[in-house]
Amino acid sequence: MQPSTADAVWTTEELQRFVQEARTADPRHFKMDHELAEAITAATDKVRPGVRVTRAALELLTELASAPTAGGALAGVLQNLDEKHRRRAIAVEAAVAYARAVEAAERAAVEPVVTVPAAEPAAGAAGAAGEPREQGLASSQTIVPPLAPRTEALAASEPGRTAAVATEAEGLRLHLSSSNSTGYRGVYEDSGRFQAQHWVDGRNAYLGTFGSAVEAAVAYARAVGEYQPPPVAAVTAAEGFQLHMSSSNATGYTGVSLERGRFQARRVVNGRQVYLGVFGTAVEAAVAYARHGRLRAAVEAAVAYEAAVARQPEEGEEEEEEGEAPAPVVEAEGLQLQPEAAAEEAVEVDVAVMVAVDDEEEEGGAVEAVEVVEAVAAELERAQGQLRDWLSAPVVAPAESQAGHGSAASVVGQEGMMAGAEAEGGEEGEAAVGLVTESEGYRLHLSSTGSTGYLGVFRREDCGRLKFVAMVSLHDGHRMRLTYLGVFPTAVKAAVAVAKAKLQSSSGGPSSAVQVGPVPTAPPRRAPLVAEAEGLRLHVSSRSNNTTGYTGVVKHGSRFKAQDRRDGKAVSLGTFDTAVEAAVAYARAVGQAPAQGSAAAGSEALDSDEGEGEVVAVGSGDGGAALGGLAALQARAAEALHRMGGDLPRHEP
DNA sequence: GTTTGTTCGCGTGCCGGTCA
DNA sequence: TGACCGGCACGCGAACAAAC
């Protein structure tokens, strides 16, 4: 849809400044995907300086900048995820936001939506505008802008590259170098990433590897002593969180300590230190500390509710539990937790509401949990770890996360493919044999860290009897909702409830990242090879000594390494959880496989070799959607950029 | 001879433990 | 609560082997 001309109130400079600010404000975010970071700059470079683009474009860029924290309560969840999972989630969000931003920029540049007020000069006055304007465009005229010229810095410093060389970032001056290919002193490109090094006393000090040259240059500038730290004390709130200030802490924030040049956040829970992560800035760490407090309050509230429900008279087995909806209104941590009979005794705990209970209120005793029994309190610690895993459900459960639990668990998580689940359903075998991966026609969500082995399933001992509590976290398009599903006599039944809930949630649209649902009646005998993924044709290898099935992909421990050959040397393209991801990286680096060549050939070869090889195509929207959409979006964005006269930075084949 | 796969070793930094 | 320390997993490149 074409925005109205009255909507076009932002200048290109404002957009570019916005992107730059976003990059410096959250370098970790942009570090996630170097190409995206480069491309977003390139995208805005394509818009002629001085012209106005739509407010919609800016809003999309806002979305990009806030991608790691989008979704309110969801951000709190993401922050507490394992870093690996979080990176992936952020990368996907960033990809989506990026593609939208490019799309908007494309609209602004290609479609006649770029407007210049007739009353003022086009470039100069518009470029000088520092603040967004909401009005004065009634007489504006619509033009089709020419393709944007490259910036002066870009043209002068790095012809052929799409990103400009910044001279300043994060409050310090960067060291430029005309002899260095990256444009920055002490910064070297290595396998598509940028390594910062500093020579001290004749030794080369490693400063870190970064996704962009600017970030590496910032690290170098810091190392040589030109870093001017921001006024930490002035930042008392960020990302919607009230930060915990501390006068005794060198960083200025409670729970934040400087660890080898980075900032580590920890929090004490039940007498134990909980590691919250390492961050580039003290403010980020402080935000993680505050965020953890809120998440903890949310978990406590849910568990408190569960405890209250459990105290209701139980008259036997699951039938009674499912048939009766104990509908107590429980107040815990300042929350009203009310069961909904219409939702099969589920109670929705609105995380967005829960996180509104700030730590200060909690610690001040303004509200107090209702009789959280000691057993529940002990369970909390375990539940927190499990909840983190569970909330990370958009990433398919690690394939080998359940070592020792048998093959039933190991078949789950193969890039969303419906792998063969040999395990027999039924709770009888769950303890002795291994985790059940399917039951009642549903594929169960496994957890690598939870005490029960299932996502969203919590173990609880009640009056000497072991019970299993099921909870599920669903995103309704606006915010995260934590839903209590009930108490079940077995972990499998609880896991089925979780799978059902997730399936119902995902059936509303194709965006569900985790493929749940009835298990196919005739699963493949082995994990099939994927011929296409993320919009790329993969290189399927027919070599007999290839163990992964993909050219350029080798097994590296429990993970998969993608490597390319350049000038006879092996160049690592990264390591990945799955062979498909590594194959995608390889295809992206060297180009796609021939249209109907290697994939089919590989399939045939495998078929002939073992008689059970299979090649399937994985499109976006299925189990691989979390990553699957990334390349497709990038491809779309690249095409858009190409039409605008530029290209995404890309590895040369 | 060239291309591709495997193995190995090193450096880095994440993460948990301990102590003041 | 903050600071320090150590173990270990991971990323990466180099060297070598194997296949084409």
From TrEMBL:
Q: Which GO terms describe its molecular function?
A: DNA binding; DNA-binding transcription factor activity
Q: Identify the PANTHER family for this entry.
A: AP2 DOMAIN CLASS TRANSCRIPTION FACTOR, AP2_ERF DOMAIN-CONTAINING PROTEIN
* Name of the featured protein: AP2/ERF domain-containing protein
At the highest ranks, the source species' classification is: Eukaryota, Haptista, Haptophyta, Prymnesiophyceae, Isochrysidales
